[in-house]
Amino acid sequence: MTTVIKRSKIAAAMVGVMALAGSGLAAANTPSLQQLQSEQNQTHRNQAASQGRIDSLFDQSRELLGEYRSVVAEYEALNVYNNHVQKLVDDQNATIASLQRQIDGIEETRQGVVPLMYKMIDALDTFVELDIPIHSESRERRVERLRETMTRSDVTDSEKFRLIIEAYQIEMDYGIGPNSYSGNLNIDGQEIAVDFFHMGRVTLMAQSLDGKSAWLWDNTARNWQKVDDSFLSPLTQAIRMSRRQTAFDIVRLPVFAAENAE
Predict the structure, then answer these.
(1) How many domains does the chain have?
(2) CA dist., res. 133 & res. 194, Å (int)
(3) What residues contact residue 27 under an 8 Å CB cut-off, 6+ apart?
(4) Which of 99, 210, 241, 262 is the most exposed place for a label (fewest CB within 10 A)?
(5) pLDDT tens digit string along 121-141?
(6) Where do the DSSP E strands lie in 5-103?
(7) Distance between CA 219 and CA 256 in Å, rounded?
């Protein structure tokens, strides 16, 4: 009995010693609280640094994305502008090509226009000669000026052509409406101051300034014919109407009838 108790005590003592030894070993292998806190703080710092790098990369990514979008928008705008400019260039090139063709044909056109202008002047001269003598002297001088202008090197062909067209327009105006003007009429070698009156090209008359004599132009005979005194008053009224000195009204004036064609 005594031996058993002793053995039990010895075993208990050994177990206690082993427990103490294991406790000391565990204590020796377990980190301290301060070390754990330090490692935890370092981990937090590492996480914060990593998060900072992530945030920096994210901000850089956003900036790069904004720059990319700006570049894309600028590229699209430049592409639209370049297409617009290209269309303008194509149109200008087409215009230049057209102008070049016109320039190449100027000499040929000029060779055809110059003879045409001479023919127009000749036709105008013949017309003035055969027409009733309305402002005959000024019309004849206009034709002569046109002939002189054609030989001048300081006047362009376009200006010469414009002057000829202007002369034709003046001739057309003589055939419109009632008109009157003052001048001199040669009757039997005597110069008489008169008022000329013409209704277009239908009739041309002249009346002495004292209103006592009147003449009618006979374009077939190419001379002046004295008219009956009954036309003096109507002619005076017609002259006044043409000068806007009285209201327009119907007046009776002599007219040479057109001859029937054979």
Answers:
(1) 2
(2) 14
(3) none
(4) 262
(5) 999 999 999 999 999 999 999
(6) none
(7) 8
Q: Quick check: is 35 in a domain?
A: no
Q: Domain boundary residue among 174, 193, 208?
A: 174
Distance, in Å, from the CA atom of 142 to the CA atom of 158, rounded to the nearest integer, reads: 18
Evaluate whether residue 206 is within a structural domain. yes
| 205 and 184 both lie in a single domain | yes
Mean pLDDT score, 227-254: 93
Q: Say if 16 falls within a structural domain.
A: no
State both tokens at 82. 């370049």
Q: How many CB atoms lie within 10 A of CB 170?
A: 14
Buried b (16+ CB within 10 A) or exposed e, 69-87: eeeeeeeeeeeeeeeeeee
Q: Give the residue carrying structure tokens 């070390």.
A: 35
Bridge partners, residue 217, by sequence: 224
Give the tens place of pLDDT for each residue, 57-69.
Answer: 888 888 888 888 8
Would you give the distance in Å from CA 39 to the centre of its chain?
Answer: 82
- Of 174, 193, 214, which residue constitutes the final position of a domain? 174
164 and 197 together in one domain: no
The Cβ of residue 150 has, within 10 Å, a number of other Cβ atoms equal to 16
Query: Tokens at residue 56, please?
Result: 């920096």
Residues 195 and 162 reside in one and the same domain: no
Domain containing 213 equals: 178-242
